[in-house]
Design brief:
The longest helix has 18 residues. The strands form two sheets. The chain has an eight-stranded mixed β-sheet, with helices on both faces. It has a two-stranded antiparallel sheet with strand order 8-9. It is an alpha/beta fold and 277 residues long. It binds adenosine-5'-diphosphate. The site of adenosine-5'-diphosphate has 18 residues, from helix 2 and helix 10.
């Protein structure tokens, strides 16, 4: 695209979608809100959200996790939660405690069979419930597992909730990277600070010690430098990250001293520094 064409396209976007100041809501009982997003599904957004939450808790913070992925809530399964949240007054929901985290999920409220067409219009009311009717108890960091993509759901969340920082999860693959660019633009337009990118499934090391770059090399790193955004970390493919998620026992909880858990700790340290500044 020439510079002239790029300017024309930017002016056009500014006209149809001006950078507006939205009235954003805080969530009661929460100090900082971190949104975990991804340009597309299947890149490991929920896996990263759950394990980051555990890593932050291991740094002695009070942590909550809110699964707002209306299209495929997976936090209950990844954390092995099958019960429903309780309510003492029939209105306000008490988050479920597991692994010392306070957890709430759209998956607790809707059955797996609820069709997506109903879920779409539920976005606004879901946000209201999560912002007004959950009794979060003195949470330092709330990790929100966002719906994938840059559709209505993510846009509404970004406009209505006062998110302190967003993290974009991607694989190094070209096709995933294209969607990351859209995500960056959307957060910029809704005035959400981007904390950085986490590249997931960076490489796989086979038993003979050889590192294989299955989804390509450094895609996340390159896009981070192109948009002048931090690359917060690169998480390799590890069979137990998948297995433990399936079994409802998060990797970072079970393998505290593993190299991969240390990567999650490093990322958590960076996040706390970025948010406390
Ligand atoms: P998303 O939330 O982006 O849809 P998930 O977190 O559900 O993605 O991950 C998709 C699948 O990939 C899951 O089966 C998960 O266990 C697996 N997975 C995610 N990250 C890794 C990883 N680094 N190594 C191995 N498996 C992973």
């Amino acid at each position: 695209m020439t510079e002239k064409e790029a300017n024309l396209s930017k002016n056009f976007m500014d006209q149809i979608s001006p950078k507006t100041q939205f009235k954003k809501n805080k969530i009661n009982g929460i100090k900082k809100i971190i949104a975990i997003s991804s340009g597309k599904g299947g890149v490991g957004k929920s896996t990263i959200a759950v394990n980051l939450a555990i890593a932050l808790k291991n740094l002695k913070y009070n942590v909550g996790i809110l699964d707002a992925d209306i299209y495929g809530p997976s936090v209950p399964k990844m954390m092995g939660i099958s019960e429903k949240p309780k309510s003492e007054d029939g209105v306000n929901l008490i988050p479920i405690k597991k692994f010392d985290l306070q957890c709430m999920s759209i998956g607790f409220m809707v059955s797996e069979e609820t069709p997506m067409i109903w879920r779409g219009p539920m976005v606004a009311s879901t946000i209201k419930t999560f912002t007004n009717k959950v009794l979060w108890d003195n949470v330092d960091f709330l990790i929100i597992d966002m719906p994938p993509g840059t559709g209505d759901a993510l846009l509404t969340f970004s406009q209505e909730i006062d998110i302190d920082g967003a993290i974009i999860v991607t694989t190094p693959q070209d096709i995933a990277i294209i969607d990351v660019k859209r995500g960056i633009e959307m957060f910029k337009r809704t005035n959400v600070k981007i904390l950085g990118i986490i590249e997931n499934m960076t490489s796989f090391t086979s038993d003979d010690g050889v590192e294989h770059f299955i989804f390509g090399k450094d895609g996340g790193k390159n896009i981070a430098s192109k948009f002048n955004i931090d690359l917060l970390g690169q998480i390799p493919i590890n069979i137990n990250l998948r297995k433990n998620s399936d079994e409802g026992s998060p990797f970072v909880d079970q393998f505290k001293d593993h190299q991969v858990s240390k990567l999650f700790l490093e990322i958590s340290n960076k996040i706390t520094k970025l948010l406390n500044n």
